[in-house]
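Entry 14. Structure prediction run on the chain below.
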Amino acid sequence: MNENNVSEKDNSPTRKMIEKRVNKFLNDYFKWFIFFEVAVILIFGYFLLLKPKYDQISLVTDAISKQEQLDYSKKDLELKDLNSLIASYKTIDQRSKDRIYAIAPVKKNEEELFSEMNYIVTKNGLILRDISWAKGSKLNNEGNDSGTDYLASGDLEQVTVNLNVVGANYESFKNFLSALENNLHLMDVENVSFDPGSGGITLVISTYYSKE
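Output returned:
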């Protein structure tokens, strides 16, 4: 009796109508369920994966942009300073330029250095006994240990000269040092030894040449 009642309920018109409506509802709105699920997945994927990456890339891009702006401002300032120096240089007359070049001339060959030193020695009544030299490092504003400002001359090549002179007395010794000090070509006497008995002078001199 009970089994017949259950079977009748399962096959009742009401149940069939409900099943029909459910099937119709699923058929009508199934694509919207799929669309909703995909939309939810995409939204969660954006906030969990894409947005953090996007924010990170945006921060890096902003930092690079700011650094490039700073670099541009620095280069622009350097260019303005360079143009100002060029404008100032153009106002200098040629005679003054020649004197500036003479302070640290461009060194073309070794014979020039020998001739220059020999001229200073003989001009003061002395005899050049021996001379030798060695090239030093290039000097600039960052690598300059002597305290001298070489900004006006740019990079310089230092040459250390070892000089041995004879035939000096006290007076000619003073005159010789004065001639080196007042020589237009920049020369720094690093070390000097004078023997009044033999009239010998030994000097270590640093002189400078502009790069080509």
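The chain has two domains: 1-91, 103-210.
Filed with the rest of this week's runs.
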